[in-house]
Write a structure and sequence with these properties.
- This protein has 473 residues and is of the alpha/beta class.
- The protein has 2 domains: 121 residues, no CATH class; 239 residues, TIM Barrel (Alpha-Beta Barrel), CATH 3.20.20.
- 47% of the residues lie in helices and 11% in strands.
- The chain contains 22 helices and 14 strands.
- The two termini are 43 Å apart.
- The mean pLDDT is 90.
- It binds iron/sulfur cluster.
- Iron/sulfur cluster binds next to α9 and α12.
């Protein structure tokens, strides 16, 4: 194996140089190893040679470390697994292909090529799951407005036209001289074109919850709506400040508070960029990167917006861990009349699990705040109250109880989603927590648990977990 790695690494580096658009998130991840796999296809058998199945994964890991193949060794390993997975699918070994593709995703979570192999292998192994071809055929009849209406910022200072977890291709940076050049950049146009031609080729069919739950509008409806769009995005999501009061293992390894100079930089963008975007948007989501009440920048932005907005139009959608969102914070920011939605990310139904998945959190304080928000929702102070749960090994058995707790609070929606590896888990730890992976020792218990009729409740939204329930039924 050692002999084959340097030439493969050369091909990999060449692809990265020729296609810089395939790298996102500060160069940490390649979003489509398909180009590399096509260029290196004739070397796939040599890569797989001399290795028993069980020995392949540790041998590859060791060989890459021994060869010290820098730069990008992490995403290079992911691409090698994707290459091996593609070859195993061709050979008809879906079980091994699936293991390899899951391993590729553990290294490089945005690799849509590897994600597609997982979906194809899932169906080959269990025909009760939807086939990839069926999803592609369905998408030809559907439309998604996000690439035309939505804009999201990220901690890397980039703009995206959908959640970057689902369409991991940036369309420009926050330093761009003007917004229109970003909205009409070649990448932005390519993403829109992929919706218009029905290929959805930049979309994650594994992670996107509206693809997973088959809840996209029809193509005709979408095309008709295009005529109504204005110049500015209708929906903005600000996720550029990672500051948070917690350090959840699924998100980060330590607590993050951005330094003063970075905060000043974001503050300086407020007047030129962020406030005009907020004023023109119909929905303003803050934030997908940390906590809006722990970030000084986001808190100031919200205070200014609420104080100066020309009308109380209920445009804010607040995503928070909820620990700091009490009556005092509500009043201090001046949220009355401005909030449409509140989404609380919790991931646990017991204090014991919460202590692990929400490191530095406070379960009792959270539940006091949930009761405050429940009262506010019942009083009509905002319109949509959602709780969210990222499913992993440590918490999957608490999913039914989480639904019961949400119903007792009178929430409007209870969302579930699959775990991602944001680079905070080692591949081994991620494999241990990734309960949706077929080879996980407790995967069958997860499927059995999904049979609980409580998940039929209309306020439950299984999103990208939905396909597992189809299999369990
Ligand atoms: S990933 Fe999903 S939500 Fe995003 S543009 Fe594609 S279909 Fe729409």
């Amino acid at each position: 194996m050692h002999k084959i790695l340097p030439p493969l690494h050369e091909i990999f580096q060449k692809i990265l140089q020729e296609h810089p658009e395939t790298v996102s998130w500060k160069g940490q991840n390649i979003n489509n190893s398909g180009l590399f796999c096509a260029a290196a296809a004739d070397m796939a058998d040599a890569l797989l040679q001399d290795c028993e199945k069980d020995g392949f994964i540790p041998a590859l890991r060791q060989a890459v470390y021994d060869e010290k193949l820098e730069p990008n060794s992490f995403i290079f390993i992911g691409a090698l697994y994707a290459l091996a997975a593609a070859r195993m699918m061709e050979r008809g070994d879906a079980a091994f292909a699936q293991r390899l593709a899951e391993e590729a995703i553990a290294y490089s979570q945005f690799d849509i090529f590897a994600q597609n192999i997982v979906l194809k292998a899932n169906h080959a192994l269990d025909p009760a799951t939807r086939s990839f071809e069926d999803t592609e055929a369905w998408l030809k009849t559907r439309f998604c407005m996000f690439p035309f209406t939505m804009l999201e910022t990220t901690t890397s200072g980039e703009f995206y036209r959908c959640c970057p977890s689902y369409v991991p291709m940036p369309i420009g940076t926050m330093d761009a001289p003007d917004l229109q050049s970003v909205l009409n950049s070649p990448a932005a146009q390519a993403i829109r074109e992929s919706i218009l031609d029905g290929s959805f080729k930049y979309c994650s069919k594994l992670q996107c919850p509206v693809i997973g739950s088959r809840s996209l509008m029809s193509r005709e409806e979408g095309l008709a709506k295009l005529a109504e769009l204005g110049e500015y995005p209708e929906e903005v999501t600000f996720s550029h400040d990672a500051s948070c009061n917690l350090s959840c293992p699924s998100c980060r390894t330590h607590r993050v508070v951005i330094p003063k100079d970075e905060q000043d930089k974001f503050d300086s963008l407020s007047e030129r960029l962020l406030v005009p975007l907020m004023n023109h948007a119909k929905r303003i989501s803050i934030c997908g990167s940390g906590d809006p009440f722990a970030s000084i920048h986001f808190r100031n932005l919200l205070i200014n917006y609420c104080k100066n907005a020309s009308e109380k139009a209920r445009k804010l959608a607040l995503q928070t861990n909820g620990v700091l969102l009490d009556r005092k914070a509500w009043d201090a920011v001046g949220l009355d009349g401005h909030v449409k939605e509140i989404l609380i990310s919790i991931d646990a139904a017991t204090e014991e699990t919460y202590a692990v998945v929400r490191r530095d959190g406070n379960f009792k304080r959270l539940h006091e705040n949930l009761r405050f928000l429940s009262d506010m929702r019942r009083a009509g102070a905002f319109d949509i109250f959602t709780t969210r749960f990222v499913v992993q090994q440590i918490n999957f058995r608490e999913m039914p109880e989480f639904v019961r707790q949400g119903k007792a609070l009178g929430v409007d929606c209870i969302q579930f989603s699959q775990l991602r590896n944001w680079g905070t888990f080692s591949p081994e730890d991620y494999a241990g927590q990734s309960i949706t992976a077929r080879e996980h020792p407790e995967h069958q218990a997860f499927l059995d648990m999904l049979k609980d009729p409580i998940f039929d409740d209309p306020i439950v939204w299984l999103g990208n977990i939905d396909n597992f329930r189809v299999r369990a039924a």
